[in-house]
Amino acid sequence: MLVGLVASAALALTACGGNASGGASGESAGPGAKAAQGGTLQVLANAAFSHLDPARGFDGGVNNFYRLIYRTLTTQGAAPGADGTKIVPDLATDTGKPSDGGKTWTFTLKDGLFFETGAPITSADVKWGVSRAWDPEIGIGSPYAKQLIDAPASYQGPYKSGELPTILTPDAKTIVFHLKKAYADFGSVVAQNTFTPVPKGQGAGNALDSKPIASGPYKVSEYKPGAALKLVRNDKWDKKTDDVRQANPDAFQWTFGLDPATIDERMIAGQGTDADAIAGTIQAATVARVQTAQLKQRTMSGLGGCTTYMGLNSTKKPLDNVKVRQAINLAVNKQTVRDAVGGSTLAEIATSIQPPTIAGRVDYDPYPSPDHKGDVDGARKLLTEAGFADGFTMTLDTRAQPKMQAMAVAIQQALEPLKITVKINTIDTATYYEVIGTTSQQHDAAITGWCPDWPSGATFLPPLFDGRNITPKGNSNLSQLNDPGVNAKIDEIAKLTDVQAANKAYGELDKQIMALAPVVPLLYEKVLMLVGSNIGGAYLHDGFSGGIDLVSVGLKDAGK
């Protein structure tokens, strides 16, 4: 999934992992203290969610939010550490039953499932929701349904093409998926947001972006795009059908559009309703101020499970030349990039595509330089060999967020000695992923990030570098790399039935891809969050970009 750091809009800036300092769950003090039922939990955010429609959003922060209002056939667990990444049943009674050698998967829905309208959730509604992923305008989120489920080449979703014949609903409780090829981990795939049920016949156009139809414990009561969002309890949700969501607060109130520095000041002061608030990772300038004993009791920190990187569009000249891309990899001063986000307290320098938390990852540095400060001479030599000794001009996309802009400036300055002029193009945070994921709107490069969608190497490299999955919209292969050798290796690994062997093979594939230099790995970022003094039940979830798990957090004293 797109890194939630990039979704400082929501709760986390990075990190698919980490430990909450200030109290583990069940303790009497700190953010991990037991949460009570009731009250309104406040969320202070810099930017709004990308989309409320589950077929459209795909970044870590919005994925976390979706679990409050939507349910899927399976989902990730609700617990700190590795237990939070385990796939467990949600709407379904189990994690699926494979047949036909793993090419067919059958799921049975639980009893007692309803939409916020009171209408029962049926297999037809699940099918309708999944089928929306093929709609060229709507289906710009998670790509796995389209990549794995068999479908006619001309299929364009239920609104344009009608029923998808490869998803069967023999009765109201049973749904059967026919895949293009065997896929042993399809029980994890159906935890993706595109498997959210939508009442049959509904959800066309922008309908769900303005008014979601809830299947989870909360529903949208007020929504002012870009400004505010309020969730209240969905009285049609039955806790007896849901082993994951605690649903502690009576309501969640988001305030969007706040300056990050203002958010930090409010969280430090912790006055009024800000005592009931959570927010994203603090700014670099604030790190030194939260070292007091009092504030440390309210902090949560951990290493991320995501990679922040700069994608290089290999379809743009001169970035279509591998030596040019290699030169950029050599020249970038990663120390100054890390300094831009707050130094070693908030990030580690990245050398490979896969972060340290991925099983089978190989620790290596394909483009080394002294202290990671860049090898300008080596880069200049490569540019000369490529015929670009006099440099060139390129456009770098970044988000309208101070930290990301600072990273862009650090890259701009690192490439100046090579006579590479970097023009920084700033895009609104709420629409950033949609813009850079639209191939016709892509520029030469973009700063972004990626987190695993579930704990498997299969969710890191194939989504980013399989050239056969490049799409006009919702494209995650920002480098638009379409290398026959990489594609063939992805197919070879996909046939492995031993998960450990597959993860090891993905570690080696990381090296093969980086030889082509389609991206510049920049950072493995860390989370450092400050929460309100009345926050309880908080821990950093190893999924969802390492943010605070919204399905478990609440207030220690709901009456305050």
UniProtKB/TrEMBL annotation:
Provide this UniProt record's keywords sorted from A to Z. Answer: Signal
The answer to whether UniProt assigns keyword Cell cycle to this entry is: no
**Which InterPro entries did the record assign?**
Peptide/Ni-bd, SBP_5, SBP_5_dom
Residues annotated as domain Solute-binding protein family: 86-470
The name this protein goes by in its record: ABC transporter substrate-binding protein
Q: Which domain of life is it from?
A: Bacteria
Lineage of source species: Bacteria, Bacillati, Actinomycetota, Actinomycetes, Propionibacteriales
PANTHER family linked: ABC TRANSPORTER SUBSTRATE-BINDING PROTEIN, PERIPLASMIC BINDING COMPONENT OF ABC TRANSPORTER
**Span of the signal peptide:** 1-20
Q: Which SUPFAM superfamilies match?
A: Periplasmic binding protein-like II
Pfam families, per the entry = SBP_bac_5
